[in-house]
Specification:
The chain is α/β, with parallel strands linked by helices. The chain has five helices and nine strands.
Length: 217
């Protein structure tokens, strides 16, 4: 398979045609080989316009949904970013080209180790992979200019807005019910938190952030 051609087609046909127009993001998507962050059996599907199942309920998020999240976060060159739930390291590698520093939060030790190794192989030196609960964020390195969740949540974790810097942005797909996702952006201004919904999208829920079971008597 010609991965370079597939990556070019992804950017031109999936990304640009869906109102993703931030030049630095487009350049990063064109430069990072998505297939190298996947197990060999999945590499042939690396540029499909879909989530790719990785097991244990985790996915590699679809390229367009990932690009929508990142564009909505408006990441600057000097920004410090908290990235939550990227299961492979691909989104982290893209973010590494946009931000000054990326703190990558992963709750599974084996995935965290594998992501750190993949990033080291590509000589990505501005991403720190840490372990912890997704809902708690990572306050030890706060405040963040941007916080991104690379998976759906039934509701935004209450601990995350407090970890934003002044004018910091938190972007996630909020889906109170399966199939009802909306890209949601919070922006901090002093003690106030503004909220917008710049796009609609769906993806798999992050572990621990799914809708709560409803019991019927």
């Amino acid at each position: 398979m010609d991965f370079a051609a597939a990556r070019f087609n992804m950017v031109e046909n999936q990304i640009r045609t869906n109102r993703i127009d931030e030049p630095r993001l487009l350049q990063a998507l064109a430069a990072v080989p998505r297939e190298s962050f996947l197990p060999p059996a999945l590499r042939g599907h690396a540029y499909a316009d879909a989530d790719l199942p990785l097991g244990d309920g985790r996915v590699m998020i679809a390229p367009l949904v990932m690009a929508q999240l990142v564009q909505a976060a408006a990441i600057g060159r000097n920004d410090v970013v908290l990235a939550i739930g990227d299961a492979t390291g691909w989104a982290l590698a893209v973010l590494s080209r946009l931000a000054s520093t990326v703190v990558a939060l992963e709750r599974d030790p084996a995935r965290a180790t594998a992501m750190a190794a993949r990033l080291a192989e590509r000589e990505v030196d501005n991403v720190a992979v840490v372990q912890g609960d997704f809902a708690a964020g990572y306050p030890a390195q706060a405040p963040y200019d941007a916080i991104l969740l690379f998976g759906a949540v039934a509701e935004l974790p209450s601990s995350l807005p407090a970890q934003l810097a002044e004018q910091g942005r938190l972007v996630a797909i909020v889906a109170p019910r399966p199939g009802s996702g909306a890209g949601t952006r919070l922006t901090r201004a002093g003690t106030a938190i503004g909220q917008e919904r710049p796009f609609d999208a769906g993806t798999a829920y992050l572990p621990g952030l799914q809708p709560r079971p409803v019991f019927h008597l």
